[in-house]
Every structure is written in structure tokens, then in C-alpha cells.
Amino acid sequence: MGIARRRFDCLVIGAGGGGLRAALQLAQEDLHVAVVSKVFPTRSHTVAAQGGINAALGNALPDNWHWHMYDTVKGSDYLGDQDAIEYMCRVAPRLVIELEHYGVPFTRLDNGRIYQRAFGGQSQNFGGDQAARTCPAADRTGHALLHTLYQQNMRAQTHFFDEYFAIDLLRDEEGFVVGALVLDIESGEPLVIEAKTTLLATGGACRIFRTSSNAMINTGDGIGMALRAGLPAQDMEFVQFHPTGIAGYGMLISEGVRGEGGYLVNKDGERFMERYAPKALDLASRDVVSRSIAIELREGRGCGPDGDHVLLKVDHLGADLIKKRLPGIRESAMHFAGTDPCEVPIPVAPTAHYSMGGIPTNLHGQVVAPERHGPEEAVPGLYAAGECACVSVHGANRLGGNSLLDIIVFGRAAGEHMAEYIRENPYNRPVADEAVDRAMQGLSRWDRKGDGISVADMYDRMSRVMEQNCSVFRTEEVMAEGVKRILELEEQLEDVRLSDHSRTFNTARIEALELGNLMEVAVATMLSAAARTESRGAHSHVDYPDRDDKNWLKHTLYLKDGHVLDYKPVRMRPLSVEAFPPKERVY
Ligand SMILES: Cc1cc2nc3c(=O)[nH]c(=O)nc-3n(C[C@H](O)[C@H](O)[C@H](O)COP(=O)(O)OP(=O)(O)OC[C@H]3O[C@@H](n4cnc5c(N)ncnc54)[C@H](O)[C@@H]3O)c2cc1C
């Protein structure tokens, strides 16, 4: 019997903020939209975003989008594409107000306007005083945003496939993406979804690291799918380590805590950020603060019996403020660290948090696969948005509050362009059985039982290699060893077996499929990191401590076939304003 098929105008893979914002745009254009998500939409990782979304509204302190653009370019350590950054910062105020009108319950100032808090890397007047640009809904901004977008999609009659797992993209002979093969997790039945346009919005991949702030579901499936379809992954070496994960667990304590006045101390009670970032202190950019903590720990000034964390002090803010503005954080600290931040400081250490790299796209969310010697070409029918994409607005280091903005701005832009594409390409292209058969092999690959390495065991080995060989500080020797170890593990994937129980649950197959994707991302990350012989943003190369603009003002492109790397220049020219040329980055 053949595999069941359903036909839509658009397929959106992923129901986080990026996928839902795109789907809403499409559904409002009366297109027939399918959204596939491996978890119920409102459980997507966007729900966990705490601190807020950036927009130069100027409600709390003076602000304008041009300053926001400057901060983002500087924060990216000049690796961000300035046209995309200009676009994002310019439309931010309008799109945040639009979210408010959709129903996001933002925290308010006494005058009724949206409250704005200070976040790291934000300045007034191109590097002057601290700005306050982040719009929160208490410390549960992502929750508010995701539920609002879900409800708006229900109203617009978007069609949801909840708890369906996308396995692989389907392409035709001419290279058009014509849909995807998905799996109904409950029944284990495969389904072909045919579509004129497909959007990858599968979120981040920080689960490649053992200690991570990310949900278990952030396994880089979209990046795996793109790589298997012969497409590149861009700037994969840039992984953000958030300075304040709960020590030993990795769960996030938002930068909003420092924005509200919390600060870090070492075992001597010293406010050590004074030494590393005399002006911005605890609100320096995330890469800077994470490195500072790593140095404190390495030099023996860490707290606790193992000296493996520092302390985040908040009690001086007063219980009233903590309970009103940071209730979720207090709850997390009490639950995981067993301490009430109203009374004692929170033990924290850096945790893998955000994937700056991803599937390369242009401003419209079209996936671009640069030919070696030609112009960048859009892959017909394929789009990507959100954390799985690299547009690139975050370059080598993302600023807090800019990711929720990224998913809204480029989710919407992708939706707009997909609608336009469909006006010009109004018919579904045929999906050949051969393409479906090929994708099915990706599934049957994991139907192996018997003796071998378990999925959990292989995950443990992989995530340890990434933690040991590709962390906050990297050296040539450690990364060369990492490359060797991760490529060995990739080969050993063939030996991974599902448990030998007479009945294997579908969840075990899903975990195996996720492991396959995690390995694709880990290999891409390790190889890209080993290739970049400079230090820039989150990539801190001990043997090459300086930024090298002469040789490395370019994006890395990793291709799965032959494990090769290619490069393309950073787009330094904004759309309508003067460029910000690279200069020394101090906070
Ligand atoms: C703890 C935490 C706090 C954060 N706080 C902030 C903040 O305050 N401000 C900020 O700007 N950013 C913050 N970020 C970052 C930001 O939240 C994320 O980058 C952003 O929400 C990602 O959105 P997304 O739509 O790209 O993906 P996600 O929200 O991760 O959604 C991914 C979707 O893809 C689906 N999916 C994945 N693989 C498959 C598959 N194979 N088949 C079917 N479906 C699939 C999932 O089911 C899910 O629906 C935070 C991140 C974390 C982890």
C-alpha cells in the first residue's frame, strides 16, 4: 500500500514563534497552510523565553532603531550582515506594537506604555549610556508570545499536525522543494505532505552540548534535513554560552535579572566584572561575561566545594520587585538550586544557549545555496526562519532580546515572500515516488535492533565530546582531537541499535532520528570551529586570540558531502544608511 498523501499550499515545519508568525501571515492571505510540530505547538522552546523582545520604542529611556542597529552590528563582532540587521531593527517597533494588538500582555509602565528593561550590549547614541530596549511580559515573554500567536492561528484556520515528526525534505529533479515526509508519532504511520512552498522553522540545536539551557526537543532537525538535501549550514562554530545557567543543571536565569540590577560575585565576594568590562559591567555582551566567568573559575576564584560556579546576587533588589518582575526565575532557582533568591544568591555557570549559525537565507527567508563561483541562488520552494536559520543578524554573538525579534521579523518576512512566490507558481509540482522512497530510507535506517550502542549512550558520548572539545575556550590541539573524536562517533552511528524489546515505542524511533540530526549538527559545529583561526564573538580561539578582519570577515559554509567547508563574504552594506565598519569591541 502506498503512503498517504495530503496536499497544501504551504508547509511550515515547526510551531515555535518563527513558524507560527509565518503561518499566520500565510493564513491571513487565505492560503491553505499546514503546520507540523513534533510537540504540541505551545510546548515549543519559544515558550521558555524569559527576558523579552527588543525594539527601540524609547518608552523608558531615549532610543532609536539606528542605535539598536549599531549595537547589533557591534554585538555580532561585525560578522552580522548589515542589510538584514538594518531591516530587523527598523521594523522592530512596528512589529512589537503589532504583537501587542494581537494580544501579547506586555508589562506596563505607569503611563500605560510597554515597560522596557536594560539588557546586555544595549547603548544610547552609538556606544554611549546604557539603553533600555527589551520589552517583557514579566519574565514569561515567550510564553505570552507563543500562546498569542497560536490563538491567532486558530482564528485564521491554520491546519495543525500536532505531534508529527518531519523526517526529510522532498525535492524534485529540478531541485524544487515540494514538501516533506513526516511521521505521525502516535501511530507510527508515515505521511507525505505536498506543498508549493516549505518553511523550516525547527529552532535551535544546543542539545549537542551536555549542559544546555535548551529543551530536550532542540535537536537541530531542520539543519539535519537541509544538510541531507545537499544544502549548506552557515557559521556553525558560533554557539552562544549564556553566562547564567543554574550551576550543575544549565537551566536559564535570564539576563533580565542583571538588567533589573542583579550582579555576579566570585568566592571572595568580589564583583569581578569590574575587571573585565569596566563600563558595562554585568551587562556586557554575553560572550564577554561567559569568558570572564570561565577565567574566574580557571584561576581558582569559583564558589562551592569544586569551585565550579559563581554567584548571582539579587536579594538587594528586595522581595517585592523580585516577585513582581522575576517570578519565574525565583521559582526555577528554588526548584533547581534549592535557594530563594530573595534571601541568598543563585549559583550560576555558563550554559550552551543559542545557535547563531544555521541554514543560510536572504532577507525574505529564502534558503540560499551559494554556488562556488557564482551568485547566491535561492532554492526554489524552500524557506527557513527562526533559530534554525542564519540570515545573519546575530553574526558571531547574539544580543539578548534579539532572537524573539528575529523570529517575528523574519517569520513574517518569509510568510510574505512565500505568498508572493505562490502567486507566481500557483500549482503543486508532482512528488515522485522515488523521492518518497529515498526519504523513507532515512526512517528505516533506524529500524535496527539487537546488540550495539544504545541511542542514549551515543548521545552521551557525542555531547561530552562537544563539551570537552568545543566549549567557551578552544585551542588548536583540543579542537583537532574533537574533530577526530566526533568523526569516529559519526561512523559509529551505524552501530546504534534500538532496544531489543519485542515492541519498540515510536518515541524510541524519534529519539534515534533526533540523534541522527544532532550528529549532523555536532560534526558541522566541530569542523567549522576547527577551521576558524581567529577569535570573534563566541568563538574564542586561545592560539589565535585576536580578531582577524583581513582574513576572516567571512561566513563559514559547511557541506555534508565530503565534510567540506566553503566561505562567503559578510554583507557589509546596509539598505539605506552608512555601514558600521569594524572597530575594536570594548564594553
Ligand atoms: C531558556 C531560554 C530563554 C530564552 N529567552 C529569550 C529571551 O528572553 N529573548 C530572546 O530574544 N530570546 C530568548 N531565547 C531564544 C529564543 O527563545 C529562541 O531562539 C526562539 O524562541 C526560537 O524560536 P523558533 O521559532 O526558531 O524555534 P522553537 O520555538 O524552538 O520551535 C521549534 C519548533 O520546531 C518543531 N520541530 C523541530 N524539529 C521538528 C521535526 N523534526 N518535526 C516536526 N517539528 C519539529 C518543534 O516542535 C517546535 O514547534 C531563549 C531561549 C531559551 C532556550
Describe what you observe in this structure:
With 587 residues, the protein is of the alpha/beta class. It has three domains: 315 residues, FAD/NAD(P)-binding domain; 110 residues, Alpha-Beta Complex (Flavocytochrome C3, Chain A, domain 1), CATH 3.90.700.10; 103 residues, Methane Monooxygenase Hydroxylase, Chain G, domain 1, CATH 1.20.58. Helices cover 35% and strands 18% of the residues. It contains 16 helices and 21 strands. Strands 1, 2, 5, 6, 7, 8, 15 and 16 form an eight-stranded mixed sheet that branches. It has a four-stranded antiparallel sheet with strand order 10-13-12-11. A three-stranded antiparallel sheet has the order 9-20-21. α1 runs parallel beside α4 and α13 packs antiparallel against α14. The mean pLDDT is 95. The structure holds flavin-adenine dinucleotide (FAD). The site of flavin-adenine dinucleotide has 46 residues, from α1, β2, α4, β6 and α11.
